[in-house]
Design a protein that fits this description.
Length: 136
């Protein structure tokens, strides 16, 4: 009997709170999808983009059992996340609650993505050279 949850002690989520959680995850997922799409199109360009002048930065095609280099890099990243996410979660759970268990972790990592994302663009402000423009 002790292992069973007492239904009266469990708070139910309202539909509005469920939507709030969903909207937050939607923003994160949208950003992840955009970056993944950009990376794939940049490192594995199609023939038209290659003919327009896009250089190849990594070898194209399968390297082992149909796996491409970009797929291998992405897969290694997912395995790394599968190992480190529970470790970081455990550290976060044991954090003293002065500012809360979660707040000390995003603070030092918050400013980092801005410059990283700005580097993705690839061309300098004021440059007349256009990406993928054929150099003749």
């Amino acid at each position: 009997m002790d292992n069973q949850l007492n239904r009266s002690s469990v708070k139910s989520l309202t539909r509005a709170k469920i939507w709030c959680f969903a909207i937050g995850q939607f923003g994160w997922s949208l950003l992840a999808a955009l970056i993944s799409s950009y990376v794939t199109n940049f490192y594995v360009p199609d023939e038209v983009t290659q003919q327009a002048g896009q250089p190849l930065f990594i070898p194209q095609g399968a390297i082992f059992l149909g796996i491409t280099i970009l797929g291998l890099i992405t897969g290694i990243g997912r395995v790394f996340d599968a190992v480190t996410d529970p470790l970081i979660g455990s550290l976060s759970d044991r954090c003293p609650p002065k500012d809360g268990r979660r707040l000390p972790w995003p603070r030092p990592s918050g400013p980092r993505p801005g410059p990283e994302i700005s580097c993705i663009r690839g061309r300098k402000r004021g440059s007349r050279e256009r990406p993928f423009q054929s150099r003749r």
